[in-house]
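Action item from last meeting closed. Structure (541 res):
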């Protein structure tokens, strides 16, 4: 008894090892396993941002698309990449489990990146053999463009399987029943995002330079190699991981059945489900009065109380999901119009050396990397001392602060764009889009830094909220729903650009998104986004 009791106390809750055996906290999971996940995330984000950070420049300079069309294509791809995690989470939680889904997604990732590299190399050969002609020629070049978009969306599919599972699997390495590991899990989300931003920041600095100064093929090839390393690193930690016992059940089927049954029983008399509802009242975790119409799914015992609670848990996320869309639209601008702004300014660091416009996204990641330790080690303890709350401020307060910062970011971006346009006019460069405006690119630094600090509050807060507010079996779904915010946000951004482009006259001088940015009005667009975000935030307050 004296030997068994300590072992029972040390046994991880609802977890087994790779052979299906019960595991102890002392020799599995925790930070020893989470570090593998963070390392994989660093590599995966390096690969992903190596593609996405400079994509708008590839579309406009290599494929000859207009600024508005390229922005729409980038937003559509980013939107799809952020929505597909819903499918990845479904596959992981219902059939394959997170571990196997990550492996399969990594293989698809490598295939997509390999084909993307091939398409870029073929495009380079085509353009070098067609000097003086349009960058996208007929015939074989059309096949190259098709190959490019197929490979690009293969990367989106792979990201859809990888993204919700790797983070949920990493968080699964901490036992919420253990006080020490429960506190460590909260820090895990902060350090997870620290690792994410480390990978993306290196990619925006190195890969964007390689792409614009050496070769686009090499610029896409390096992320492919890094993704191979990421898969190897993930497999290396297999023996240390904790695997959730319940992760292969089908939460989507259970939740869907609750809604279908509740609709079928919508005309049921109160007396017909009184007994089931009375049973619900005895369960402390069941929110009986909230979304009461779902209680009708309990009639005839088609659905269990726990299944109804799962459906209610998902519905409770909807208000936060909707009110976060304004932030997501602002978030979408950092990889599109921010980059195009920077391309018009003086990017000279020293004579003969210019930084790529996309590399300015590094400062978003740098702001995050520098501010996360400040938040975790300074802000939280101070806030905890004032509020007496375990984490200083609530998750919703954290999300709200980030939304406010995103509004300020758009206001600052608009003011800086007004100065850029004024400078172009003063120097007579309004009709000369290929001439660099004599204004330092560092004027854009405040909007990038504000965007990064806003992410520390809102994005990390949303990650933790959507993971924490759902049952264990739904955590991949929760994180996929969080990612879908940014998917829909990108689609909404693409929709706004398309509508505004149509209303303001295409590529004429009145267009907000003219190819000649010196004649465009990005400042109007930023003011519009600031106003929309402020209205949405005020409605959610």
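Sequence:
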């Amino acid at each position: 008894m004296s030997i068994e009791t300590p072992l029972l106390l040390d046994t991880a809750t609802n977890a087994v090892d790779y052979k299906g055996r019960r595991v102890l906290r002392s020799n599995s999971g925790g930070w020893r396993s989470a570090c593998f996940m963070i390392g994989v995330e660093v590599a995966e984000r390096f690969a992903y941002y190596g593609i996405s950070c400079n994509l708008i420049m590839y579309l406009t300079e290599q494929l000859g698309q207009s600024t508005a069309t390229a922005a729409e294509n980038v937003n559509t791809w980013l939107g799809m990449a952020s929505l597909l995690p819903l499918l990845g989470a479904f596959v992981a939680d219902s059939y394959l489990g997170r571990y196997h889904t990550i492996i399969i997604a990594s293989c698809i990732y490598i295939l997509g990146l390999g084909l993307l590299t091939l398409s870029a190399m073929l495009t380079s050969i085509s353009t070098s053999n067609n000097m003086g002609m349009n960058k996208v020629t007929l015939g074989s070049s059309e096949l190259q463009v098709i190959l490019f978009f197929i490979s690009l969306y293969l990367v989106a599919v792979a990201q859809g399987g990888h993204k919700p599972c790797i983070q949920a699997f990493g968080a699964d390495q901490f036992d919420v029943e253990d006080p020490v590991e429960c506190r460590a899990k909260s820090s895990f989300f902060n350090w997870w995002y620290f690792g994410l931003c480390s990978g993306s920041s290196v990619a925006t600095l190195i890969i964007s330079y390689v792409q614009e100064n050496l070769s686009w093929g090499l610029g896409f090839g390096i992320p492919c190699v890094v993704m191979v390393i990421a898969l190897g690193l993930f497999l290396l930690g297999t023996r240390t991981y904790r695997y959730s016992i319940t992760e292969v059940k089908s939460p989507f089927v259970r939740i869907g059945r609750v809604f279908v049954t509740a609709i079928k029983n919508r005309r049921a008399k109160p007396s017909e489900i009184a007994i089931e509802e009375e049973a619900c009242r005895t369960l402390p975790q069941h929110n009986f009065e909230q979304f009461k119409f779902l209680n009708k799914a309990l009639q005839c015992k088609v659905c269990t109380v726990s299944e109804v609670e799962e459906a209610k848990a998902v519905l409770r996320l909807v208000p936060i999901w909707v009110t976060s869309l304004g932030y997501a639209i602002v978030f979408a601008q950092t990889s599109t119009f921010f980059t195009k702004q920077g391309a018009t300014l003086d990017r000279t660091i020293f004579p003969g050396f210019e930084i790529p416009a996309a590399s300015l996204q590094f400062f978003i990641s740098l702001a995050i990397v520098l501010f996360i330790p400040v938040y975790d080690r300074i802000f939280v303890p101070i806030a905890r001392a004032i509020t007496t709350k375990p984490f200083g401020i609530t998750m919703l307060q954290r999300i709200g602060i980030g939304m406010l910062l995103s509004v300020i970011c758009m206001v600052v971006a608009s003011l800086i764009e007004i100065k850029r346009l004024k400078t172009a006019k003063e120097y007579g460069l309004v009709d000369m889009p290929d001439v660099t405006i004599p204004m330092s690119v560092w004027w854009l630094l405040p909007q990038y830094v504000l965007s990064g600090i806003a992410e520390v509050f809102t994005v990390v807060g949303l990650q933790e909220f959507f993971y924490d507010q759902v049952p264990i079996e739904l955590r991949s779904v929760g994180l996929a729903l969080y990612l879908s915010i940014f998917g829909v946000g990108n689609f909404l951004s693409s929709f706004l650009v398309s509508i505004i482009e149509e209303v303001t006259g295409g590529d004429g001088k009145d267009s907000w998104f003219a190819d000649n940015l010196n004649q465009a009005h990005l400042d109007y667009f930023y003011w519009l986004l600031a106003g929309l975000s402020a209205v949405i935030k005020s409605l959610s307050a």
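Note appended to the action item: Residues 179-213 form the longest helix (35 residues).
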